[in-house]
Amino acid sequence: MQIKEFISIRQEKHLKELFEFLRFPSVSTDPKYKQGILDCANFLHNELSRLGCNKVEVLDTPGHPIVYAERILDSSFPTVLVYGHYDVQPAKVSDGWDTDPFEPVIKDDKIFARGAADDKGQVWLQLKALEYFNEFSANDLKVNLKFLYEGEEESGSENLDNFIIQNKQMLECDVVLISDTSIIANNVPSISVSKRGLASLEVEVIGPNRDVHSGIYGGVLANPIVVLSQIIAECRNANGQVTIPGFYDNVQNYSTEQRAVFKQAHDLMTSYKDLAKDMKLSKTVSELGFTGYESTSIRPTFEVNGMWGGYMDTGVKTIIPHKATAKVTMRLVENQNPQRILDLAKKHILSLDSQGCTVNVVFGDAAQAYSNSLDSNLYKAGELAMQNTFGVKPIPTLDGGSIPVGESFKRIMGKETLFLGFGLEEDNIHSPNESFGIFNFNKGIETIIEFLKIVSNKGLDIAS
Amino acid sequence: MQIKEFISIRQEKHLKELFEFLRFPSVSTDPKYKQGILDCANFLHNELSRLGCNKVEVLDTPGHPIVYAERILDSSFPTVLVYGHYDVQPAKVSDGWDTDPFEPVIKDDKIFARGAADDKGQVWLQLKALEYFNEFSANDLKVNLKFLYEGEEESGSENLDNFIIQNKQMLECDVVLISDTSIIANNVPSISVSKRGLASLEVEVIGPNRDVHSGIYGGVLANPIVVLSQIIAECRNANGQVTIPGFYDNVQNYSTEQRAVFKQAHDLMTSYKDLAKDMKLSKTVSELGFTGYESTSIRPTFEVNGMWGGYMDTGVKTIIPHKATAKVTMRLVENQNPQRILDLAKKHILSLDSQGCTVNVVFGDAAQAYSNSLDSNLYKAGELAMQNTFGVKPIPTLDGGSIPVGESFKRIMGKETLFLGFGLEEDNIHSPNESFGIFNFNKGIETIIEFLKIVSNKGLDIAS
After folding, report:
1. I need a labelling partner for A424 at 20 to 30 A (CA). Which of A67, A315, A444, B2 fits?
2. What is the residue-averaged pLDDT of chain B?
3. In the listed set A348, A367, A386, which residue is the last one of a domain according to the structure?
4. Is the minimum CB–CB distance between A378 and chain B shorter than 8 Å?
5. Searching chain A, which residue's CA lies closest to the CA of residue B217?
6. Residue range of the domain that includes B12
């Protein structure tokens, strides 16, 4: 059977199965959905068994289980480790959903449900690609497959790194494939080739040894909240630049040609046009001299994720507070070393006038930026697969977010990841009315089949 | 009997009574001490009855009761409304007390107990002054007395303004007398003649309509915490000055002679010397060109009492938060109109770059600074009383705090308050090991007797 015929004839069956998958309320951030998580993991386990995997397990972690499966055909074949996640973001009708988030419906050729695009729909299209080979084209698949489906991606993948470290041998592979990203538009396919890194720290400003009366002492004692605000203000300027000395030292400058490509991508991404309206802001911002797309991908940032100090209840309490704290994360780009950036940030913060207060800087998570080379066989395989199915060559895109799992596979196992995803920015992932286009679901099956065929032909060269 | 003889012979009795008063755990901020509050109010009620008041009541408020009493002798006499409070700050041995805060002890000629100086000791010396006249000098007292003893001063006097408004006629008087302040030193008597005013507001910066992913959006959306930090930083400068345009317009400039007196007062106040060490700070601060004393009295301030936004729990959450909020209070000096200051602050805050966010400024409490004229008969009576008992003329001092009750009596009833207090800065009010010198207690009785004699001689001229 031809691939297109398979997808067309089986569509009703595929959607029926996916709907079953989507109905599990596998919300990982809320303990009351624990049963939904377990039921969903078992459902996935059964599907992987049905698809002929020779090893299928639901493996415990200190958090939610990982569903793991293997379909090893021949040790001379390349091995692709497929990663995805079966957990979803929280969702309640009262958040603004038009329909029950855990009762999928189709409207305007889109599947509406929590997890439709992130990531259940994209997990399911990977499995349907395997089903195609199983039933109609077994001899064409010369690839060993390993599947790692996580249940904690939406709650921070807290146990994934340890799982990879402890099961390095079991997970041994040539390359990693993840379908958890978006394309620019249905006629503009794209492949995400970089993710920004991350460096996090906490700044604590300790003032008087207790909350003191702001009347008696206001004027002679520094106010830790004011000092912290001044520190934060001294880390960013009005041009959207980070003012930590040395922060931009190793940031890559792109050529005029490359900048032109980024400009084109920016203009193609409809999301930037409506962003301010969608977020109820009067305008968006960006770093001086860079487009929104560049500001969220090739440029590093300094963000305060949380800040608190003093009296936070109703009414007035006239105190100079004992202390104030801010949580900071910086998004990093290629060549920025997270540890060096943390050191620079700390040095800068401690160089500012503390006005008699004690300033403590404590480092948190750090991850190097991650990127694929456009010259790698892995990227070229993905590019060719998309070109064959979409009819146009995909654009390599740079993502602002840090999907740490790509960085984890690189750091722990030394393996490259291909982010071959099929969502759209309009899919409302993490928001009410999440959706996934049926076009995208079908095109995903087709592209994954195509990709696996190309890998089958290339053999072990794929990883080089 | 001479006054000094009365004080000396009765000292043991006076302290025994005061100890009984101090043993009530009348903590107003914690509901579990409600019985301690009620028992203390009844104790005070009984004492006022014993002292011959012709109307003594424990009056309910929505919070803790007010103990009210009148001792009206003749309608042609001036009426002095005496204010004090019988509630105290919280205190536990584990906070660092050397002895039980509610079991008074005498050490180094000081009474150690919660409330010793603030304000039970000073309430009791007022009552002992009345006792002196009752027993030994009835004909010399040509003053009507009204007593208003509050049970919520330490929890913000939430119901006092309404009580005054509703009982304006009952409280009708010529002047108000409060003993709840300090003198510079036992050989440097002083009278507090001004309290700073207050203007409070809340600033809310609303960014994206929900918490969003700082990787995907970091670089194109303003961060409300950063915007708020920049706003706060734009309200103060490195010289300790407030940078709101027009903020200092009506702030009084003092003559070289006056500044010399303030300098003298600053140098006499030992508290400034050890302040940094006491508060575990590397240094104190002050407004450029002003001493610590001036910075906390004749200069206005801008303080953030509380600030919060985003993720405030353990670990890292990579969000650009939906919003951030800060609670601000400004201490004001004479001639600064609180409403005008609030308007100026709002105008300034709204003029700053919100980077696409919505900035809301909501006004809270406001109170005009309060001060006595040094030429008033009331101040002169207090000055003379102290000069007669301490042997030196008291220094008029300016206080940083806003005891709103003085402003309330002025605003609601049009009456001046004399702050005739006898504590010392070293008394540790609001802190562990609160104390009150026996010298100060006795000198307080003597000075209040003296003051009432002077008022008796001046008659109704006292208020002019």
Report:
1. A67
2. 94
3. A367
4. no
5. A296
6. 3-195+369-463
Residue where one domain finishes, among candidates A331, A351, A367: A367
pLDDT attached to residue B398: 86
Contact B301 A365 (CB under 8 A): no
For B165, residues 6+ apart whose C-beta sits below 8 A from its C-beta are B412
Q: Which residue is listed with tokens 């010392």?
A: B424
Q: What is the mean pLDDT of chain A?
A: 94
Residue A412 lies in a domain: yes
Is B360 in the same domain as B376? no
What share of chain B has pLDDT > 90, as a percent? 78
Per-residue model confidence as pLDDT tens digits over B33-63:
999 999 999 999 999 999 999 999 999 999 9
Residues of B in contact with A312 (CB under 8 A): 306-308, 327
CB distance A284–B220 less than 8 Å? yes
pTM above 0.90, yes or no: no
Q: What is the CA radius of gyration of chain B?
A: 24
Give Cβ neighbours of residue A43 (< 8 Å, ≥ 6 apart): A20, A21, A24
Nearest CA in chain A to B283: A356
Q: What pLDDT band is residue A174 in, cutting at 50, 70 and 90?
A: very high
> Do A355 and A319 fall into the same domain?
yes
Nearest to B22 by CA among B78, B83, B106: B106
| Residue in B220, B355, B402 nearest the CB of A215 | B402
| Contact with chain B for residue A279, Cβ under 8 A | yes
Q: What's the rounded mean pLDDT across residues B340-348?
A: 98
Give the separation between CA A73 and CA A79, rounded to whole angstroms: 10
Instruction: Give A361's strand partners.
Output: A203
Structure tokens at A200: 């996090």
Residue B346's domain is classified under what CATH number? 3.30.70.360
Residue numbers of B between 161 and 200 with CB closer than 8 Å to A:
195-196, 198, 200
Q: Give the nearest partner residue to B356 out of A156, A283, A356, using CB atoms.
A: A283
pLDDT attached to residue B456? 97
Domain count along chain B: 2
End-to-end CA distance of chain A: 32
Q: How far apart are CA B185 and CA A402, in angstroms?
A: 63
Residues in chain B: 464
Q: Is the pLDDT of residue B213 over 90?
A: no
Residue of A159, A221, A330 best to disrupt the B interface, most CBs of B under 10 A: A221
What residues of chain A lie within 8 A of the CB of B318, using their CB?
198, 200, 303, 305, 329, 402
Whether residues A82 and A147 share a domain: the answer is yes
Contact assessment for residue A238 and residue A287, using Cβ atoms and an 8 Å cutoff: no
pLDDT tens-place string over residues B197-207? 889 999 999 99
